[in-house]
Amino acid sequence: MKLDAAGWCAEARRVDTPNCDARPPDTDISLLVIHNISLPPGVFGGPGVEQLFTNRLDPAAHPYYATIHGLRVSAHFFIRRDGELLQFVSCAQRAWHAGVSSWRGRERCNDFSIGVELEGSDELPFSDAQYARLNRLIADLRAAYPGLVDLAGHSDIAPGRKTDPGPYFDWSQVRGF
Questions:
Q1: Which residues are catalytic?
Q2: Theoretical Cys-Cys bridge with 95: which of 19, 77, 89, 162, CB 3.0 to 4.6 Å?
């Protein structure tokens, strides 16, 4: 699994989203942010996350969707429970995953980070296939971006606002940092 010069991973299923833009000039990628997401909440394997990240979420399909269908969010990568890897945004661009955030005194983490969403919740452990895929992805990202030196959870960059990846994310299974 390698990234091309444009920031796309050859092994990922590419799903283009309009929810991205250019990074600020001369910005080095230095942070990897881990998230969790499931749509509807606690339900795995459906199309909800892809639909949310591509602005195609039907607000009538589930009561929860009516509360979030207007969000314009994305991530660079999404790892499903079975280890399938999807990529929504080139690593060369800014995905909209961090929101109001700060890391080591730097605001606007979207500017200098790569966002990886794991299909999951704060209430359940993640799968071995997800950790295996995440570790392969980390190795390739670190090879492509030597300045990528920090790893954090969404809760670390947005404390009090976000809780993911949650208490069941096993940081000891993450390799490469």
A1: 117
A2: 89
